[in-house]
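User: structure tokens for 9-O-acetylesterase, please.
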Amino acid sequence: MYKRILMLSAMAAVFGSAVAKVKLPHLIGDNMVIQQNTDVCLWGSARPGATVKVAVSWSESGYEAAADGQGRWQLTVKSPKADGRRLSISFDDGDGAVSVGNVLAGEVWVCAGQSNMEMPIKGFDDCPVDGYNDVVSGARADSLIHFVKIPSRMSMTPLDDAMCEWKQCSPETVGDASATGYFFARMVTKATGVPVGLVMANKGGSRVESWLSRENLERYTKEPLDSAEMVRKYKWDFHRPLLWANGTFNPILRYTVKGILYYQGCSNVGDPGNQYSERVKLLAEQWRKDFGLGDIPFYIVEIAPYESGQADGTWSARLREQQLRASDIIPNSGIVGTNDCIYPWELTQIHPAQKRKVGERLAWLALNKTYGMKSLRCESPRFKAMTVSGDTCYVELDNMYGGLNRYDGMVGFEVAGEDKVFHTAKAWLAKGRRIAVTCPEVKAPVAVRYCFRNFMLGNVANMAGLPLLPFRTDNWDD
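Assistant: Done. Predicted tokens:
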């Protein structure tokens, strides 16, 4: 009997030691990228009251933290400057060490939003991404790009962990990376020589309200926050508020990142007034507060042309207008245009194939605004002012970088008179780098629009080849 007690005691000690060993969230693991040259947050769980010691391969400095009554601990370590070295970190609470390896110091960016951000290099069914074979065959050269996909999960309460795994880009893995995120990372790495880590926390079909916290939803919206009410109001789970913030985004909020890439909006088409832009601003403020890293960059992708039930309608155009407004009212923000990222036959394709342009334009924004490469031209031309002389409207633009891509043959312009009926217009580059717009059917024009339809493709760009952002000079409710 005594021997049996001793044996059981020994087994309990071994089992207890195994249970007590430091446990890390899945986001902290092999192949991860840590934000370079800063204080990086690390966290996990251990035996309550235990002292967790952390050792890093790039420094002799030691770090430690005490686990609280629930076994939770958190600390920060000073990360090195990115140089391509493979790093490691070990964690020890006295009951056994846990290590992570193949770690890189670099730049960490969050890929947030809905399905066009989620869309992987391998595409969705019947929705290909241009250049798949080119990317896969060249992926061995992209070993400095790592990514982690946070599972799309709903939760009524905020989750601290998610079943995920960092991957290093290779021909075998790159197909799973966000296409927009990958092309962004490839350009940033090419320009800087620095590794890039992508944290892909997104959900197809999600609304901006899907990512707002309970506090913000209660204070600024009338969204249902009871699960039964959510189901009654929203047939599709991806439209429901709060749940994706709790289940998909909350697990990453302690990770140290550089900035956020935000590609979302299709599911908010039809929102009234300035509601969408104000809620995107609220979301940017929420995420910045939760990350605790200050006003980190928040770069927005304009939703692409899509018929949205009626190609000639304007409800999608109004959402794009709201996205531009959001980029104006959110500090340290910017927007990339996508009007030329659509093939004419993609009228009903909600997932257009040209993701390389989108990702690279985001990269140019970041390289110019975040990394100081001011010689890069990163802004799309946008409406500045309009004057009318007789039957001709003259439109002035910002962000031309010295001119436009064409003198004449411009398409996408419409004009209207007091009757508010728009007609296709002729447009050309006039003296003073103004665009002259006229139409025989409109003798006394009062308003001009450019590509202000659900699906309308223009051909005007600036000297950088970046497309003119859709606009209107009126404020009419069509």
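User: Anything notable?

Assistant: Residues 2-20 form the longest helix (19 residues).
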